[in-house]
Design goal:
With about 500 residues, this protein is an alpha+beta fold. Helices cover about 35% and strands about 25% of the residues.
Amino acid sequence: MVCELGKRQVLHIRRLHVWHLTRRLWRWTVVLGALALLAVSFVIYNFNLFYPPQRVEAALPPLPAAPRAGERILVFAPHPDDATLGAGGYIHQAVQAGAQVWLVQVTSGDAFKASVELWYKTPDPTPQQFIDYGYTREQETLRSMRLLGVPADHVFFLGFPDLGTAQLWLHYWNPDHPYRSLYTRVTAAPYRNAWRPGASYTAPSELSELRAILEQVRPDLLITLHPNDVHPDHWATGVFSRTALQELRDAGELWARRVQVYTYLIHRGEWPLPKGYHPSLPLVPPRQLLHTGTRWYRYPLTAATVRLKLQAIEEFRTQTMMMKDFLLSFDRSSELFGYYPAGDVPRIPAGSRPGSGPGRWPGIAPVILDPVGDTVRRDLDGAGDFRALYLALNDAELYVRVQVRTPVDSQVRYQVNFYRFLAVPGGDRLQPLRVTAALGQPLRVWTPTHSRILAERPVVAGRYLQFSLPAAWFQGDRSFMFSATSHQGKAFVDQTAYRRLRLERRSGEG
């Protein structure tokens, strides 16, 4: 009897062991499966960013014209290190070829709070410490540019607000109501060495300075930020600089119409990969931006230039102590430049209107193409993830069509931005006009002087949202900068590039 009980206990214990082992194996299977799924998702997500760079580089044409003796080149940078990262090799080889190079540094990079805390070893930096940190970064710029061959008197420090440039573009058009920096706590350029000390933190003030510098330098080539750079200071610097140039073109400056404009890219998700110092690899565009309207070019660097660019990058000690691998990722065997051309608003016959059903507008190409699924947020919020923007104009109406990745959702607001270049003598040079559309809601229109609600509601069909505006609103305009943003609740989802679109094609414009 005892033996029988002993056998039963042994069998019971064995069953418990098997059960516990099975549970452990099942748990490990679930954990390993989840890790494998995450790994596969990571590879799929990053495949668009990390792909054979040499193969992509071979398909990229070289920059159409190498820098030449006597050429005047003006480079725009939102922060102290950006010009060195994106165009440092080009700058050096241009100077060696006999070109003259100037740099416009829009902000002094004074709002990098984590770096300021580490630099001054304090968890609560004062506004003056943020300003002093800006001075430090300016000195880093001068040392870096000196290595690349640019003299100190060719560097313009403007002192506009770091992490505030996009705010000026979006909201601060009233000269009497400037933006206040959250870090330096000032509303005007606080730097003694600023090109215009005390310049007000408003959009008209920044445009005025950029126009004046353009008129002073009269460049043959302008290098600025790419419109798909996701950093707000970066895309805004690109838009401000291209807008200032366009205003001079519209004012009849013949030299301004001959200026060639190229862009460089710094921030785009995990790009560039692999991170770190890989001087033998080329710099190639993110895969998502290969087919969105930019013509990409490679610019090969000599081995000596690659070595010198490394030294120029290392001058930015306030940055290398925080993100050295990211900065060194830009010291490659080639640099990357883009050309993002202006477009034309498609015209349709008087009295006709494009269809409002699902699908593309027949015979009308999109004016802006936008990459999809390029962030986790946009993967989750497909109704706010732009694919394309369409426009069509007849004598009475300007039709706007927005295409998103998944069907339009009532929780998403779509904001279409027009920055109109007015052709009225003595009038404002640039006039923002913003239209907000949402499923089932009336259109809301905003300008710096007023806002109103229209009776019209957008028409929605699947992944398309469409509405129209009176063509009379755009009478007398030559062109406008055009973009769209989307929000779900208060959360930002997506923004397209800003592209200049012509209503009136003029000879000599590209």
